[in-house]
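Notebook, bench 3.
Goal today: get a predicted structure for Phosphate transporter from Paracoccus onubensis so we can plan the truncation constructs. The sequence was checked against the plasmid map this morning, with no discrepancies at the termini. Length recorded as 494 residues. Pasting the sequence as submitted so the record is complete.
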Amino acid sequence: MADKNFEARHLETLDRDLGRFSNLEMATANIGRSLIGPGIALVFIVLAGFAALLFLGHENNALIVTIAAGFGAYMALNIGANDVANNMGPAVGANALTMGGAIAIAAIFESAGALIAGGDVVSTISKGIIAPSSMADSAVFIWAMMAALLASALWVNLATWIGAPVSTTHSVVGGVMGAGITAAGITAVSWGTMGAIAASWVISPALGGLCAAGFLWFIKARIIYRDDKIAAARIWVPVLVGIMAGTFAAYLALKGLKHVLTISMGTAMLIGVVLGVLVWLAMIPIIRYQSHGLENRNKSLKVLFGIPLVVSAALLSFAHGANDVANAVGPLAAIVSASATGNFTESVSIPLWVMLIGAFGISFGLFLFGPKLIRMVGSQITKLNPMRAYCVALSAAITVILASWLGLPVSSTHIAVGAVFGVGFFREWDSERRLRMAHLAIPDRPRLAPNERRRRKLVRRSHVLTIAAAWIVTVPAAALLSSVIFLGIRLIAS
């Protein structure tokens, strides 16, 4: 009997020890998985540096350009991790796309936009923030651009880590401003341009939110709240898809293809109108066919908006790749040119190998780190369905075109996230309005307690505050980081 008790205790001890080993193995595996993404990213950064060394190993400042190429690759990875979520988040949150499908589509269209229609000429000083003549020489200019590139990448990396979608354009602007002030003094800054950028912190989300809320109101009033929803959808969904097609045609003509063809605002609008009318007419029989046999309820309407939403997300990714790749590789191209020629006061061309770093970096960043921000934008701010997500995507394109026409400085990131906020706050307002109407119709109906009304809020206030704070501090934070990094580079170089 004693032997049996000893054996039982021995087996129990062995089971505990094996359990500890099992937990240790699981923890090791989880740590290993968490290091895969950063490991691949580090390999890409190193390969980008080797690419620069391969192409420019015989040039002056080859080591500096190699390091700058690594910084540019790091920035491109962060753009993919943070900025692309604004285009894909609504489609994923609405369940129109899986996470894997969204990443695949975004990677293809971001890369295509960067390589086909990406900026072939950029100013040596981003957005005209710093007067080129204020720089003492090409060496100081190169140090400033390197500091700006690394500082903006670090800030976007931090924002992604805390789950805040921020403007990478504003990050670059802040980086250039901070390094420029440290290198040439505060008078070198174009404060008028900075004031316009500060104004965009309010203009961008407000325009995006109002536009998205307006479209959602239209869909609710003309389709969702109708007695025969399917009949109403057959009339208005082709119109909405036509508006989407026309808007994106004008958007891509004006913004996405501006480096391939020079197109005026009037021509872009004419292209949009013509294509919009053609798509509207083509969609009438298609929507009629899709809606055949659908039940007269809101859930059935989601089917009709699914494909237009996926197409809009792909087109937004193409336009984003065409425009924002310069945030990653513009300063790098300026460093390459200044290192080779010593000239830093004129516009420079972006070499193909530099464009490839930007395009592939955005795709790798999206694949490795993008899901976190995609979930944030798509489902954690407010609940989205295909109709609401469609309003977000359409308002993003319309707002950019409207702002370009009016000459207003806007951020595509702020517009898209502002549109998500606009949809959520409109849903809250509409819910409150319908509740008041119900009480007017039935005065004796019990009212909700204040805590229950707060619980039913449809936009998470904590995310609103986090994102708004990140937007406000982006430029000064990137500027401060850039200033410190510039001083460190100058100290090392001297």
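The first strand starts at residue 121 and ends at 122. Residues 142 and 231 are 62 Å apart (CA to CA).
Flagging this for group meeting.
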